[in-house]
Design a protein that fits this description.
This protein has 174 residues and is mostly helical. The chain has 7 helices and 5 strands. The strands form 2 sheets. The protein has a 3-stranded parallel β-sheet, covered by helices on one side. It has a two-stranded parallel ribbon with strand order 1-2. The N and C termini lie far apart (42 Å).
Length: 174
């Protein structure tokens, strides 16, 4: 295998879901781009502007290092990408985050920051109880992955269940 897990990435989730298609990949690292491109068999770019101008995607996902998020968001907004998902953390500084909010409020794009789970009732309750929520049970140990195939976003569902188990252990193990 190529070493790229399924669906442990945004690309894999988009490729696997019946209502979306992975249109292209962008990575400044040619070796990583080649590996992912061979696996997904979609157009590959090292330059985000070139990709967005040629592909004109309906959704752009910013899953780059946090210090690049401000520039990537500005580019996607400039080129009129209808929906933009920015991965957490939104930026590497409060000032950059404030500028990003201002940029997004002046555009016609929908901008989403991927921080949804931290606001779920389970997490809020754990936080109120003083539980330390510093864990990341990502798909390497996703026991739900092979059992839950109905919707195509298997990893997302499994990770939430794993998160719940980890929180329960933190709360009830004393």
């Amino acid at each position: 295998t190529s070493g790229i897990p399924k669906p442990a990435s945004h690309a894999a989730a988009l490729a696997a879901h019946p209502r979306t298609a992975l249109a292209a990949l962008v990575d400044p690292d040619p070796a990583q781009l080649k590996l992912a491109g061979e696996y997904y068999r979609v157009p590959m770019y090292t330059d985000p502007r070139e990709c967005l101008e040629k592909i004109r995607p309906a959704i752009a996902i910013i899953a780059t290092p946090p210090h690049t998020h401000e520039a990537m968001l500005a580019l996607a907004l400039e080129l009129g990408v209808p929906a933009i998902v920015c991965e957490k953390p939104v930026s590497d500084s409060l000032d950059a985050a404030k500028r990003m909010i201002a940029q997004a409020s002046h555009g016609n794009s929908i901008v989403i920051v991927n921080h949804q789970r931290r606001f779920l009732p389970l997490f809020k309750a754990a936080e109120a109880m003083g539980a330390v929520l510093f864990f990341h049970p990502q798909p390497q140990n996703n026991f739900m992955l092979e059992r839950a195939t109905r919707y195509g976003l298997n990893n997302s569902r499994g990770v939430i269940v794993e998160d719940a188990i980890v929180v329960a252990v933190l709360i009830f193990s004393g």
